[in-house]
Amino acid sequence: MLSTFELLPKLAQALLRHLIAYGELAYEEAREALARARRQIVGIAVALLAGMMALGLGCLWVIAATWNGPDRLWAVGGLCIGFLLIAISGGAYAVGGRSRGTAFEQLRAEWRADLREIARLDPTLVGEPGSAMVGGQRAARE
Fold it and tell me: Stretch 104-111: mean pLDDT, rounded?
């Protein structure tokens, strides 16, 4: 079995290669996430602006249609209550939504695979989950 000093150059090369690969993978995932976010923001902005315009014109149309009639106050009140209910349901929807995927999943998967490989080569280099590493050595549990 090789000593730690004999393994050190190989481990340093592997670590450097993996750090470069992690950087490239993180860059690609961040670029894809930004492209998706940009597309979603533009889509949401267009939908909001067009929706607000249609909503305003719809309200104007309802009020104009009932202006000379006895139901004009009911029309305005109904519009107000309807939009209040839509606002409440939209807020509940926004608060209740959870992200389906986490960012940088591939990076985490590669990191875990590399940790398993390192543990297979030399288990003393990888700490157990939740344990602290001090100067390359596991901290004594007391």
Answer: 82
